[in-house]
Amino acid sequence: MNQKQRYYKDQREEPFINIAQPKLYLYLLLFSLTILFVVFAVGYVSTRAAQGNSGVYLPPIFIANTVLLLGCSYTMHLANKSYKADNTLKYQLSLWGTFILTLIFLALQILGWTLYYEVLLGNNIGIGKQYLYALSGLHFAHVLAGLPFLAIFLIAAYLRMKEPVSVLVYFSDPDKKLKLEMLSTYWHFLDGLWVFLVLFFLVNMML
To answer: Does the model's pTM come out above 0.85?
Structure first.
């Protein structure tokens, strides 16, 4: 390993306040996303209060999607647990489960937007339509952005785990473990964020 490669390796692994630098960058990203969504949520409440209108209607398909994302969180948790237990089959199946549930979520989200506008209420959807589309659209974009990283793990789980030696190397790779933990954190955050959005609009719809 030359000096330049060693420098970048050290920069990647050197902890900062007991947190690995890649994790720190991820936490900063998630914090920024949290602030962004809070700003949108406050903007929605302010707009609604100023105009004195009722809350925006939340389509049932948005609520159903919550179950899918909770399933994603569970399968991602199983993937982490299986990785630490060196359980190859369960690890692969958990990644597959997360990937498939995520694809279904994205497809149903597109369907929900379409039905919401064209079938459910047309143009009579109440104040806050733009906020619902903006917040759910931002969430959709970040789920979509994480999908290639999940696909990389899924592909590697099959290409690099064909024999006992390669399985041992895969499960003992600290860099792979770190990246899987980061992916899990990202996925759990998005799932929690969706639950917050659904509860937020439900509460506002009932008030």
So the answer is: no
